Amino acid sequence: MPDQTVHNRHGSWLVRILLGAALVWTVVPILWLLLIAFQRPRAIVSPGWTFDFSLANFEEVFGPREVYGAQVLNSVILVVVSTSVTLVIAAFAAYSLSQLHWSRRTVALVLAGAGLLQVIPPMTLVPGLFATLQTINLNGTLTGLILLNIVFNLPFAVILIKFYFDTLPGELRESAAIDGASEFMTFRKIMLPLAAPGVASVAVFTAIQVWNEFLFGLVFTAGGREAPITVGIATLIQPQEIKFGPMAAVGAVTAIPIILLAVIANRQIVAGLTRGAVKG
Predict the structure, then answer these.
(1) How far apart are CA 266 and CA 253, in angstroms?
(2) Taking the model in full, what pTM does it have?
(3) Is the pLDDT of residue 94 over 70?
(4) Which of 2, 83, 23, 36 is nearest to 251 (CA)?
(5) Domain-by-domain residue ranges, the chain?
(6) Dihedral, CA atoms, 110, 115, 121, 123, nearest 10 degrees?
(7) What pLDDT is stored for residue 279 in this prediction?
(8) Interval 204-257: pLDDT, tens
């Protein structure tokens, strides 16, 4: 028993050390990003270590003549609209596949198609998507980007939310039907609230995916005020110089909100992942 106790203590300390190292590995780059963002450009490239607090980097990239503020707004609109529409469609589709007794073959085909889209490199679909958006006059528009983000995030969202609905007992739906509730009322007032942790985790995942998306914004917009902020950050890397200060300022504005979202929604994410991992 003493040997086992010592072994457990060593294991506990090892876990703490590994977790501490992981925390440092995660937090230090964020702190370094913030440090550079609030440094004067001269202090960033000067030899030695000095900290000269300044908002010059933020004033440069978010000035009235710059496009980065409009690009941040574009990204916010992309995230809000794409995530909302994706969740609404995915919730209905997942509930139907999970609870409405489709044949196994139909469910398998739908899930296989959804899974197949996830492994296709988006770059291979760019020519066809470009021609399609050009035909419907949505090329270079925020609406076109929203549609593309919905299409590419919807399959994975359907798969995940279906797994969460699978954990709910079918007797709940049957009891609601006996009490006279319509299918939509059962979905909205009973099943969806119970699957809320899973839906919340999917929402956070989708929001992060849309916020970080770069390829579609680069290809399907002309840049400038029409582009999302991920494209704007890339413009700060120029052949003559790399604007470290402005890049850090834009990076702080774009990264911190998503990090805070993940931290705030952490409980819902953990609950959703745990629930989806065990089928009741």
Answers:
(1) 21
(2) 0.80
(3) yes
(4) 36
(5) 2-37, 58-277
(6) 40
(7) 44
(8) 889 988 998 888 988 888 877 888 988 888 888 776 777 788 888 888 888 887
Q: Give me the phi and psi of 237, to 5 degrees please.
A: -95, 105
- What are 35's two structure tokens? 């440090």
What tokens appear for 206 in the block?
Answer: 């989708």
What would the two tokens of residue 6 be?
A: 């010592």
Q: Which residue has the tokens 């937090």?
A: 27
Residues 6+ positions from 273 with CB-CB distance below 8 Å: 201
How many C-beta atoms lie closer than 10 Å to residue 33's C-beta? Answer: 16
DSSP string over the chain: -HHHHHHHHHHHHHHHHHHHHHHHHHHHHHHHHHHHHTB-HHHHHSSS----B--HHHHHHTSTT-SHHHHHHHHHHHHHHHHHHHHHHHHHHHHHHHHS---HHHHHHHHHHHHHHHHS-HHHHHHHHHHHHHHTT-TTSHHHHHHHHHHHHHHHHHHHHHHHHHTS-HHHHHHHHHTT--HHHHIIIIIHHHTHHHHHHHHHHHHHHHHH--HHHHHSS-SGGGS-HHHHHHTTB-SS-B-HHHHHHHHHHHHHHHHHHHHHTHHHHHHHHHHHHS--
The superfamily in CATH containing domain 58-277 is MetI-like (1.10.3720.10)
Residue 276 has pLDDT above 50, yes or no: no
Does 78 score more than 90 pLDDT? yes
**Confidence category of residue 17, pLDDT binned at 50, 70, 90:** confident
Tell me the pLDDT tens digit for each residue of 133-169: 889 888 888 999 999 999 999 988 998 898 888 888 8
